[in-house]
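User: Hello! I'm new to structural biology and keep hearing that structure can be predicted from sequence alone. Could you demonstrate with TRAP transporter small permease protein? Please show me the input and the output so I can see what each looks like.

Assistant: Of course. The first part below is the input, the amino acid sequence of TRAP transporter small permease protein. The second part is the output, the predicted structure written as tokens.
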Amino acid sequence: MGRVADILDGINRGLALGLRWLAVAMVMVQFAIVVGRYVFGVNSIAVQESVLYLHATLFMLAAGYTLLVDKHVRVDVFYARASPGARRRIDIFGHAVLLLPSMAALLYWSWPSVRNSWRILEGPISVGGIEAVFLMKSLIPAFCILVILQSLAILIRLLRPGARA
């Protein structure tokens, strides 16, 4: 089972290697927007929306990696002072009872909207924008799946005999 967890980790690690370049692209595009608008008096709704698309892609697809490297936000006031065994139990409970069911629910309830968006090839958010809202909505199930896979990898490790927090 450890090999399965390693494979699941590898998915998010590999994806993160490519996604980090989206942050660079986002800064460069935003800089070009500012220079274009204030220096040359040129503006493009589609280019402005591209920053939104880059940000959404980066945020949604990197969530699994954030969980992998344990840099997500913890809202557990007892976790910091807990013993390793208690931390392990908190983590198991959090993944099995809170995270996995909530991701499954989000995936289930968002799927009709994503499917419909693809069916009609949903157009731009704003007039003159990028005609690919259906692609941005596809990030929702991708987010859910990547977080579910990472959560399963963490659970596999937590449930092994002798596992620590």
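User: So the tokens describe the shape?

Assistant: Right, they're a compact way of writing down the 3D structure. Reading them back into a model, for example: Residues 12 and 122 are 28 Å apart (CA to CA).
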